[in-house]
Amino acid sequence: MNEFLTTLTAIAASAFSPSTAALAIAAIGLNIHFGYTGLLNMGQAGFMLVGAYAFAISIVAGIPLFPAVLIALVAAAVFALVLGVPTLKLRGDYLAIVTISAAEIVRMIGRSSLLTDITGGSNGLTGQSYRGPFTDLSFLGDGQTTLGPFTYDNTGSNGWWVRLVAWSIVGILCLFVFLLMRSPWGRVLRGIREDEDAIRSLGKNVYAYKMQALILGGTIGALGGIIYVLPASVQADSMGRSMTFFVWTALLLGGAATVFGPVLGSIIFFALRLFVQGIAGQFVPDSIMNGQQAEQFSWILIGVVLMLVVIFRPQGVLGNKKELSFNVN
Amino acid sequence: MTPFTQRTRTAGLLSSRRMLAGLLLIGVASLGLMGLGATSASAATATPTTKCVADATTGCIQGTIKQSNGDPAVGVKLTIAGGDAPETLTTDAAGKWGVAITVAGPYTVTLDTTTLPSGETLDPSVTNPATVTGGLGRNTGTIFKLSGSGGSSSGSTSAPTTGDTSAATGGSVTWERFLQQAASGIRLGLLLALASVGLSLIYGTTGLSNFAHGEQVTLGGLLAFVLANQLGLNLFLAAFLTVVVCAATGYFQDALIWKPLRKRGLPNTQLMIVTIGLSIALQYAFQFFIGAKTVRIDKANPVTVEIGPITLSVQSLWAMGIAVAVIILVGLFLLRSRIGRATRAVSDNPSLAAASGIDVDAIIRLVWTASAGLAGLAGVMLGLVLNGVNWQTGLQLLLLMFAAVTLGGLGTAFGALAGAMIIGMVVELTNLVLPGDFKYATALLILILVLLVRPQGIFGRRERIG
Amino acid sequence: MVVPTGSPAPVLQATDLVAGYVPGVNILNGCNLDVYPGELIGIIGPNGAGKSTLLKALFGLVSVRSGSVTLKGEDITGFKANRLVQAGVGFVPQNNNVFPSLTIEENLQMGLYLRPRLLSERLDAIFDLFPALADRRTQRAGSLSGGERQSVAMARALMMDPSVLLLDEPSAGLSPVRQDETFIRTRRINKTGVTIVMVEQNARRCLQICDRGYVLDQGRNAYTGTGRELADDPKVIELYLGTLAKDVDAEKDDKPVTIA
Amino acid sequence: MSTDLGVTPAPTKAAAAATASVAAVSPLPGVPKPDPILVVDNIVRQFGGMTAVNVPHLEVQRGIITALIGPNGAGKTTFFNLITGFDKPSSAPRLIGGPKSDHAARSMFNGRSVNNMGAAKVAQRGMVRTFQLTKALSRLTVLENMLLGAKDQPGENLFAAVIKPLWAAREREITAQAEDLLQRFKLLEKKNDMAGSLSGGQKKLLEMARALMSEPTMIMLDEPMAGVNPALTQSLLGHIKSLRDEGMTVLFVEHDMHMVRHISDWVVVMAEGKVVAEGPSATVMDDQAVIDAYLGAHHDTDLGDDSLLTDEVAEELAKEVELENRTEGDA
Amino acid sequence: SGGGSTATTTSAAASSSYTDAACASGASTDKSLVVGSILPITGSLAYLNPPELAGVGLAVSDINAAGGVDGKDACVLATDSGDSTDLTISTASAQKLIAAKVSVAIGAASSSVSLNVVDSFASAKIVQISPANTSAKLSGYGPFYFRTAPPDSVQGSALGQLITGDGNAKVAFLVFNDSYGTGLRDFTQKSIEASGGTVVYGGKGNGQEFPPGQTTFSSEVTAAKATTPDAIVILAFDETKSIIPELKAQGVDLSKVYLSDGNTADYSKDFEAGTLTSAQGTIPGAYPADEFKGKLVSWYKDTQNAALGDFSYAPEAYDATTLSALAALKAKSTVSADIQAQLAAVSGASGKGTKCKSYAECAPLVTAGTDIQYVGQSGVGPFNSHNEPSSAFIGIYKFDKDNKPVWQSAIEGQTSY
Ligand SMILES: Nc1ncnc2c1ncn2[C@@H]1O[C@H](COP(=O)(O)OP(=O)(O)OP(=O)(O)O)[C@@H](O)[C@H]1O
Ligand SMILES: Nc1ncnc2c1ncn2[C@@H]1O[C@H](COP(=O)(O)OP(=O)(O)OP(=O)(O)O)[C@@H](O)[C@H]1O
Ligand SMILES: [Mg+2]
Ligand SMILES: [Mg+2]
């Protein structure tokens, strides 16, 4: 029972951890891409990485916090632009491959030993080297605060401050997306998702809208990247393909083209992982599997559970099942 | 039994048996050769006369002098001064010299150039006498490089500067190197093509991007490991069984997962997430059952053949041959056969295909089975050619496979071949001109560039509007 | 010619069919259809009445929620489409009725998927019927014009040499000559003993050639009768046929337009 | 309702004016019109070796209904694609190796050049089209589909989008307009349904209504009534006419001759990519060549007649079709 | 608690059986030593977990056999560090260890992962001791970060000297592009160049490293071979298994191949006999640890029910655990912050401590208040001001005909920066 409580606490802790928020933010960005505009961006982690690098490198170079964030957003916007100019004319599946490739290229360049002086190469950049200006901003002061079962530093590297900021950003973004998507602008995006040519025939500049969506979602992704590295460190590999997959999974778990879907999806994604691990750890006796096997087994289960969730709730928790039926023409 | 009857009997056997025998023969022969090589190598490094072992109270100043052709330079005299007392040494049969010291500090090592083997001189870059800082509990040394030509031992003063002067591409770019790498490129391309055909087929028929395809490749390699290495089955038999089992996994996967999901009309994006889940589950299943280490299907060292300047292993040649044959067969099958046409029809318009009397589910089942089988075959051959498989071999190649498939135009078998060849070549040739670090990145960049010029892929076709 | 009801058993019969796409929404609400051997049945009705849904339900492409479909006395409700093709049922859908990335010839070959041995013979026959297609046999169907696609779709269905043929708006998008030809060909095929059910928005033409017609509205049979009866029924005219053709013809006869 | 369907309404003043505006034009292919809204030159499109469209010169008169007819595969849809920016003429001017400037494709719409212009821009200029194979925006509701058609929406700007008051008024306006049109197109009950769930004919209707939402200067309809119930067609034709009367130019492709005869002021006939005839509808449709090549001998006959089932008739029809093919064929 | 053996008993230990000392929930409340581990149970470095876990587990077992810490048995709370492609795993595990208020966190294996969690541990004032990190980035990162892995400078110089001492003037590197590979490469290169050798391939700043996850090595091998090196150094982990046959296939003399601690392992099951004969490698450690290995194997067999074939970083993990227990003993507290204060002392930082080799041997000394220097299995010296070993022994191994590394000698080196 005690064990179970520990698991529950851990799940709750991870549900509002900064990385969950970061994933949620990235998923909100992806939602604009895929959920609303239908852009198959398989490189959202690339946007996160660009944002994280630009942010961390700027701060290391001595640029103050807000300009550094701005630089990160601009960098992501430029990345989106560079990526979008040629690729937004491509058919969806091709866009997917191009974006996943571009993200991988960013990662490989970032971790290349040739750029060790700037990006830290395979070591990445340590959190200490860029976190300062952010923690300095905290008005929570030093010391620890306990809320329920959770005790964290008020400011610290991974404390209440970063949680507060991260989730505030999530909240603001949700509101922002809500406002955008109920507007005619959002309607055009959804129209593009359905049939570009039809929208073009109605006199809308599809290319410009797609670019706006790509840039908007990309910069939001970059924001996610910043949040992701604030309590940790910048590691090129950590924002690679698996991260993109996680963002996608979170989005579809929560429900694409819904405002809160990405957020809920991220929470569910991490909670599910911990839950399955906790359960598996508890119920698999040591005599059958050792620690390592049990851990691996729990990951097998996570894979399976993920499949099952999508299978039994394909539209996601918040999605509208009706919309699925017209997906195939 | 007379030789004659024997011959008639062999003629009746499957040709694969004969190939197998041939392969075995070559293997045995090369084993013998290698044994010879090994003994001679160990003979060369045998018993140095002076052996110094560094410990807390001793340090070693030591080195090996080699002639320009790599043979040890025997009988070269050196004087070591500093610390305790000057000492004169002669290199032993292995060209080694060494002295134990008990005091840390700078030592001067002087080589008596007159004792060098005839025709050898000190390389101009070497400082003679050389100063080394000896320390206790460590080895210290200096290299006296010899050159065969009559270069003077006079002038040079400074120690050699850092690193190699050649460009970031590393080493000299020679024709031999180019050809060798091009051959590796073709080999990688073909294997990649074989691995991606299934991906392309599944995409082509169902529109699904199967992110678990990499794991199907891994499965092939790991199964072959279990069968050939663990259970000791003959390699060909193991490969055959692997393909059969892998194909079966495709069959049951479709029966248990994909068909029911198709029935429920899940969109492809959702299915894609399901494949990601499957991929995760399979990856950890591999770790669970086989472990995270790299395993080798065939413990034996590769037996090589030289074709001009190119050295390739026999297994590579086999693998390339099989890959070409299989891809051509699959391609022709799709283009020419009735089932192949049905496959394309299903990919175009499943409900109309059903209305034409095609059993859509059966076709898709066939595609899954074939894809998994082909992936398994590719896994076996990749495992052999790349000298090992582990739980993430396929995963690491998946992006290259997607790139290949896309480059060739989504959903066509020959497109996958063409795309894979380009990707394979780019990957293996990148380090001729760019830092090798970027070899995958370059391949992906090429993909992006090609798509800019031909947005529909090399073999893809544009759609009509309206 | 109307086959007297009650004589031979219906070859295709739908009883109280309820079917739909989205759970909870029924598109067909108890639809009935009896098709006797050798009949040519026309189905007309407003847009969204459920005509295509009915054909799809007969052909097993829409899930039937209640009621039954029988073919030659055998219950075929829920059968997979390919089994029906085996049983001799042919179907030309309203939309997406060609394989766009296959060539014309391959499209036709798909029509004879189950009996590939007859291929060359049937192919010649069909190309005789559609000479335009013969010239372009290697063109991909996806690049064809709307009308050309329609011809390919029809030709594909004829390749199978079916005993029961379900046609969903075969004349849509065809030029007038080809429309006429299509209708007349349909009748000729019917006369060779093929049972045909056709949905048409070219209702007047359809009622001209069919033996019996059904008017569908909101997923139910609204009117049934011989083609002539329906074509002359003022209610049917007002609600479903319109008077345009008549008006125009009248107008043309009354006051021929002269060029100034 | 019967008023809508009954006898052909007496031609309105505007209608008469429209007819009159082209009355003096001689019925020759490529003839200049008194007040052309669209003028195209040297529009050529080749696919491989086949020339799908080759129109040296064509003018479309402002404020009338022009029908574009012709056999299947004549190049009508391709022509639409070319002038609306969805496809590029093979004869389009290019930086290198393009055609000489007087042979290069040119198109003027409403007095301004629309050469090489993207589809969206062309539409913004007021030339809005529909597609033969419908393009419904499946996962949007019918109403949303409609609203997308409307022009001048401040809310379609990313920066204004977040602030509702900036666009709420216009939104109300176009919603009313949309509901009005939906009513007319018998789609009002479906307004909150997903467009993907519409039937084939309903999608056609929606597409047409959506195009009308933008209140275009010129609307180009590609087989708008194929698959639409005849009774509904009839009432919609009335609507199209009234649009013309309000000044809209209509160019439409159609195979339904009754409809062409009923509403078009001018007819352009295409075959094998070329404009082979044009003129007032009655003139063109009584032209023996057009009848032979396009309408066929039976277009006025009752096909229920058993005498039509003889082999001779079949052969005759085959010949007619072949004639059409030859006109359309590869030359 | 295990009925294990002390380090003083002989290899008979291999026959006695161990039991797992996994922590019961709430172990932290009873003030026993809770050894948290954050090791790659899953992911691309998962093959490093068994030896490292065995090191930790065996150490705890030995500690408990010697009476535990202050009479209370120590226990292990094992968590997964995953790999650098999914840092959320290590983040969650770190939070779990922090929530459990462990006395020490042993890990991670990968420098990237350590960098991800190091700040969290530090801000929770929990000592983190990595048995395998060698990245320069982590050198002296903060007061709560320690490592027992020998710094690259020591091994690099030993390896470089080994290479040049054999008369190899032109050296090619095949280097895995992570902090382990590049860090070790940099120091090895430095040492080679100091002796007058040159690096012809794979040197610093050439971008010729191969990234993780690469599966094909033919072009690297061809390129390296084209520079006609006298020796080839492979600084990688498991990839080595694919690289060696590729070298063989391209006709490279494998007796001129040098390996390091990441890959000097028993390859008798992987390669044909004779493949690696005379190739050499370095592994930190003062002496051949056959007995220690035997104990690791049996601990792993008894508690994890699986065979242990690999020993990379097991000694370092063992030492990290033992050191923290000794520090706890000295601090008379199992609170991490208190342990942190004593770690340097028990490692012998004063330079005057009595040398002792195992917990059983050291514990009584500590209890008696004697200054000690723990000389463990990995041959590392006392912690310096960067919280990393100030010196280390590096063993030199040569492969025999069965592709097994055979201990030749050991040299001790000082950490330099
Ligand atoms: N992308 C293409 N590739 C090859 N041929 C094409 C392509 N697009 C159109 N065609 C050919 O060009 C010709 C003209 O086609 P188009 O669609 O313009 O005809 P249409 O007049 O609209 O006919 P319909 O009345 O049947 O709709 C046809 O023969 C068609 O096959
Ligand atoms: N895929 C679908 N999903 C949900 N509802 C659908 C779908 N297809 C059709 N419907 C609904 O079913 C009703 C009947 O559609 P159906 O296609 O059968 O009409 P129809 O009689 O063939 O009309 P038309 O003459 O326009 O082709 C329509 O009102 C539509 O709303
Ligand atoms: Mg219909
Ligand atoms: Mg057309």
Automatic annotation (TrEMBL), chain A:
GO cellular component: plasma membrane
Record has ATP-binding as a keyword: no
Molecular function as annotated in GO: branched-chain amino acid transmembrane transporter activity
UniProt main location, coarse: membrane
Membrane spanning stretches: 34-56, 63-85, 160-181, 213-233, 245-276, 297-316
UniProt KW keywords: Cell membrane, Membrane, Transmembrane, Transmembrane helix
Location within or outside the cell: Cell membrane
Topology versus the membrane: Multi-pass membrane protein
PANTHER family: HIGH-AFFINITY BRANCHED-CHAIN AMINO ACID TRANSPORT PROTEIN BRAE, HIGH-AFFINITY BRANCHED-CHAIN AMINO ACID TRANSPORT SYSTEM PERMEASE
Name of the featured protein: Branched-chain amino acid ABC transporter permease
Upper taxonomic lineage: Bacteria, Bacillati, Actinomycetota, Actinomycetes, Micrococcales
TrEMBL record, chain B:
SUPFAM superfamilies per the UniProt record, alphabetical: Carboxypeptidase regulatory domain-like
Keywords recorded for this protein, A-Z: Amino-acid transport, Cell membrane, Membrane, Signal, Transmembrane, Transmembrane helix, Transport
Highest taxon listed in the record's lineage: Bacteria
CDD domains: TM_PBP1_LivH_like
Any one biological process term the GO annotation gives: amino acid transport
InterPro entries according to UniProt: ABC_transp_permease, BCAA_transport_permease, CarboxyPept-like_regulatory
Transmembrane segments: 188-211, 223-251, 271-290, 317-335, 366-386, 398-426, 438-454
Keyword Signal set for record: yes
GO cellular component, one term: plasma membrane
Cellular compartment(s): Cell membrane
Chain segments carrying region Disordered: 147-168
Bias (Low complexity) ranges: 154-168
Molecular function GO labels: transmembrane transporter activity
Signal peptide as annotated in the record: 1-43
Bilayer disposition of the protein: Multi-pass membrane protein
Family: Belongs to the binding-protein-dependent transport system permease family. LivHM subfamily.
Full protein name: Branched-chain amino acid ABC transporter permease
From TrEMBL, chain C:
Xref: InterPro entries: AAA+_ATPase, ABC_transporter-like_ATP-bd, BCAA_Transport_ATP-bd_LivF, P-loop_NTPase
Coiled coil: none
Record keyword Transferase present: no
Family: Belongs to the ABC transporter superfamily.
Alphabetized PANTHER family for the sequence: HIGH-AFFINITY BRANCHED-CHAIN AMINO ACID TRANSPORT ATP-BINDING PROTEIN LIVF
CDD domains xref list: ABC_TM1139_LivF_branched
Gene Ontology MF: a single term: ATP binding
Record's protein name: ABC transporter ATP-binding protein
Keyword flag ATP-binding: yes
Protein origin, superkingdom: Bacteria
Annotated organism of origin: Cryobacterium zhongshanensis
Keywords, sorted A to Z: Amino-acid transport, ATP-binding, Nucleotide-binding, Transport
ABC transporter domain ranges (all copies): 12-243
Automatic annotation (TrEMBL), chain D:
SUPFAM superfamilies in UniProt: P-loop containing nucleoside triphosphate hydrolases
GO cellular component, one term: plasma membrane
A molecular function (GO) term: ATP binding
Source taxon at top rank: Bacteria
PROSITE patterns in alphabetical order: ABC_TRANSPORTER_1, ABC_TRANSPORTER_2
InterPro entries according to UniProt: AAA+_ATPase, ABC_AA/LPS_Transport, ABC_transporter-like_ATP-bd, ABC_transporter-like_CS, BCA_ABC_TP_C, P-loop_NTPase
Domain ABC transporter: 38-297
N-terminal signal peptide: none
Keywords: ATP-binding, Nucleotide-binding, Transport
Protein name, as recorded: ABC transporter ATP-binding protein
